[in-house]
Amino acid sequence: MFRTAKIYSMFFLLIMPFLSDSGNQGTLKKEAVFCKNIYLSNKEVFEFSNWDFELGPGRPSKSKNLFGATTEMLPPTPIIISSWETEKMPFSILRDYVFDEISWFPQLPNCFYTTNDPENLNIQTLHPSTIKSLNDEFFLSGWEYGKKYLLPFFHKIMSSKNARKELFIYFTTAYRNIQHLYPLSFKKEVIHQINLATNFLNNYSKNRTKYLQQAKNDSNFLEVMGHNAFLFRRIEKDKIPIQELLAYLNEFKGVVSESLHTTTIPNVFYLNINDSDLIIVDHSGETNKLQITTKNSSKKLTLENISKITCLNNGTKNYYLFSAYEKDQLFDSQLNLIER
Predict the structure, then answer these.
(1) CA 80 – CA 175 distance, rounded (Å)
(2) In this structure, what are the phi and psi dihedrals at residue 292, rounded to the nearest 5 degrees?
(3) Is the pTM of this model over 0.85?
(4) Is the model more confident about 218 or about 338?
(5) For the purposes of burial, counting CB atoms within 10 Å of the CB of 123, is it exposed (0-12), middle (13-18) or buried (19 or more)?
(6) Alpha-carbon separation of residue 153 from 4, 16, 80, 256 (angstroms)
(7) Measured distance CA(88)–CA(149) in Å, rounded
(8) Whole-angstrom Cα distance, residue 273 to residue 95?
(9) What angle do helix axes 229-236 and 184-202 make, rounded to 10 degrees?
(10) Sign (positive/negative) of CA torsion 140, 122, 104, 56?
(11) DSSP characters over 157-209
(12) Residue 324: which pLDDT band, with cuts at 50, 70 and 90?
């Protein structure tokens, strides 16, 4: 299998997959797309990695993503791209690879902004509806399918200026068709990622020699590059001009900025712990950060890379231990930090 990678190319942010909630939507629906009530007693732990997401009631098929957008809302395949399609490599494979929700969910909120690079094809992220016309060989040999069909098709699109333009128009149209279903925090995160990508591209020329040397000598270079690996490959492998990428990013940023005014739901997710002792939402524009408030005070916390929350009770009051990768922090129910 190919590895899973995090990217923020304008080609893939447009129909990025997200999560569903298995908890009670209840009266919290107005606060976010996905809401969950959680009750923790003394020493009970909520682990983000164990938050199991389901398709939700009444979901008709895999052709609908978890924000409610359907493949029917997407435009027809661009003509140039359609001319390269084959029975084993229709454009819908690449489209649905991006559109479908990921079938496994890493720690929240990382997965909100995670999608896959076609060069790192993980066959498990493709649903049967996406590949129903293909034979079982596809399932048995993801590497071979990727090398033989998907990657050549993808690179053919990337190597043609006219095809890249058609693809950009396609995804911009797709975004306009489905953007009303997406919350404000998602759209702000897209803008945040575009800003990061723009900064990377603006400084690429002066750093290119360093990147090439690192890529040559470091087997983990692409992992170290993180978000920028996709753009690095498009520049070096597909020879896409930096100015062209910048132009697309800037244009799409304008499209997303315009769509901020059509949003009626603020957040992707809303967690209510112990009857509003803690209220946790995704943090707009800052990947991997959580915004935390409480009914008990006007304080707000912004914490990063939280993996789990442990409730501690002394008989009269709740305390919460937030566990992150590098350190744990203990807060009372008024969000005051308790030094340990």
Answers:
(1) 20
(2) -125, 130
(3) no
(4) 338
(5) middle
(6) 19, 20, 12, 28
(7) 7
(8) 37
(9) 50
(10) negative
(11) HHT-HHHHHHHHHHHHHHHHHHGGGS-HHHHHHHHHHHHHHHHHHHTHHHHHH
(12) confident
120: CB partners within 8 A, 6+ apart: 2, 3, 4, 5
Residue 5, pLDDT above cutoff 50:
no
Q: Which structure tokens are listed for 209?
A: 């020699």
Amino acid 68 reads: G
Question: Which position has the higher pLDDT, 84 or 184?
Answer: 84
pLDDT > 90: what percent of the chain? Answer: 40
Q: What residues form DSSP beta bridges with 293?
A: 279
- Three-state secondary-structure class, residue 258: helix
Residue 106 structure tokens: 């890493």
For helices 161-178 and 151-158, angle between their N-to-C axes, nearest 10 degrees = 100
User: Per-residue pLDDT for 3 more than 70?
Assistant: no
pLDDT band at 231 (very low <50, low <70, confident <90, very high): very high
Bond prior to 109 in cis (omega within 30° of 0) = yes
What token pair was written down for 89? Answer: 């490599």
How far is it, in rounded angstroms, from Cα 149 to Cα 186? 32
301 C-beta neighbours (distance < 10 Å), count = 17
CA distances from 148 to 8, 81, 104, 257 (A): 25, 17, 25, 39
Interhelix angle 184-202/204-217, nearest 10 degrees: 90
Highest-confidence segment of 35-39, 229-233, 287-291, 292-296: 292-296
318/333 Cα distance (integer angstroms):
6
C-alpha distances in angstroms, 266 versus 34, 121, 175, 297, 301? 11, 32, 18, 21, 18
Backbone angles phi, psi at 34, to 5 degrees: -125, 125
Q: Which two tokens stand for residue 15?
A: 């129909």
pLDDT band at residue 220 under the 50/70/90 scheme: confident
Q: 187, 259 in Cβ contact below 8 A? A: yes
